[in-house]
UniProtKB/TrEMBL annotation:
Organism: Thioflavicoccus mobilis 8321
Keyword Transport: yes
Transmembrane segments: none
Signal peptide boundaries: 1-28
Molecular function in Gene Ontology: phosphate ion binding
Name of the protein described by the UniProt record: Phosphate-binding protein PstS
Amino acid sequence: MMRTPSLFKTAILCGSLVAVSFAPAAFADVKLNGSGASFPFPIYSKWFKDFSKETKGVRVDYQSKGSGAGIQDFINQVVDFAGSDAAMNDEEIAKAKSGVVLLPMTAGEIVLTYNLEGVGELKLPRDVYPEIFKGAISHWNDPKIAAANPGVDLPDEEITVVVRSDSSGTTYVFTGHLSTIDEEFKQTVGQGKAPQWPKSDRFVKAPKNDGITATVKQTPGSIGYIEYGYAKLTKAPTALLENKDGAFVAPGPESGAAALAAAEFPEGNLPGSDVPDLRAWVYDPAGADVYPIATFTWMIFPRHQENDKAEAARDLVEYCLTEGQKIADEMGYIPLPGSVVETVREVSQKIQ
């Protein structure tokens, strides 16, 4: 199978997606139950509701409970599919008795939302925000934060850091970025779906993306990490982050797509499988216009299952690749470019 050398490059250059109409098949009462990542939950909810409405005899339900819980449900075969921002690692794939088809279905940015009265714009340098999340910077008026925000009235107030309480793919991607740009963070906290955050009363835990969003909104002086769509939906403020090139960049569809332009799918298949490996990460992208934290998020299907469920799953994927991509931007996600859509469409035929 031909691989795209640079997944988002084509989309940035031509600004187009593959336009294919979706014609749903008719089914006799097929139900697809899924669980997992909260990162894509707003757009998945819309996709699944609309697909179920348009596809006679099929209903798709999805429970937002975190990537780690979704992967475990998938391994335990208590769901028909799962959602994960961390994809699956080789060890998890080996535990899946019916095989694995991993499909990137949308992409998004991880943003830092904060609660500081009177602060409409906040810039956080790349040597500052890792310090906040490893507990080294504890006050909002720290000299490093103040130097990046001249003229901003930063309070002499402790920073409350809100992190995930559940096993989270969003956390996996966020800590992967922090571990890449800060060696001390890598050694002390590290990358993981449930890392060892500092033991401090300034660190507060909340479940899922919506839990962090709500906790930050309710906690003056707090900061937390969420998917951009949640910030857009709730009108939560987001910090401008300094990228690898030294530019402070706000999240958005263009800066997010630029971040994923360097992503490359690996050659070869998933371990012990004939299914192509569509796991790709960019933890510290370069470019003046690039937002520094962006990721794909994956749907996970069994390689082998009942025929009617396999057919419904393939139709669901096709719907998400066509009609679904049209609403990605307005919901705070990054539409997949045509090259990636074609690759995912081809690999989805492995769902049998």
